[in-house]
Amino acid sequence: MKHEWRKQEAQYYLPKERVEILTVPKFNYMVVKGQGSPDSEEFQERVNALYTAAYSIRMMPKSGYTPEGYYDYTVYPLEGLWTLGGEWDEFEPLDKTQLDYELMIRQPEFVTAAVFADALEKSRAKADHDVLDSLEMRGIEDGSCVQILHVGSYDDEMRSFDLIKDFLWSNGLMRTSMRHREIYLSDPRKTEKDAIRTVLRVRVTSTTESNR
Which residue has the higher pLDDT, 91 or 106? Predict the structure, then answer.
């Protein structure tokens, strides 16, 4: 049976438009780091490299090689960890050129270092070589989090972050850092801005734990 993350793992990827608490275990990701605006050419090159390598793994059986433990699956969505370098006044417009990010696509358990390396080689005809060389496999555990489904423009995400802030205050929780995760459920090239669906997730701890 085909593994479809929208069905078998909906708790991690398809929240409601209200804040919810969850615990996210360690998953393996294909990751690339960057800095600057998501509107830049460099950002798009990193996205292209990730998708090219991810689909190379997905299609390996059709190219004559089936990794040990391979199973049919839907490629996971693009995700990003975002932080802002330097100081930022929340009452001033966001300077996107100062953003630091790690883009990633989760990988199935059968993707070993050897499978990953083979995927990079198979991707060289379709993606920037320097970007491919900067990709890495890494295990990441989000742990205790809250998340919400944001529907609308990326520039309007503060509306959903305000809901997160109110939820944390009401439930004795606090963010462990200002870094946050975004999971992109829509293709912005094919979706109207007010219909874009993005999961927003932050790591949290209880205020009691933080004071111990």
Answer: 106
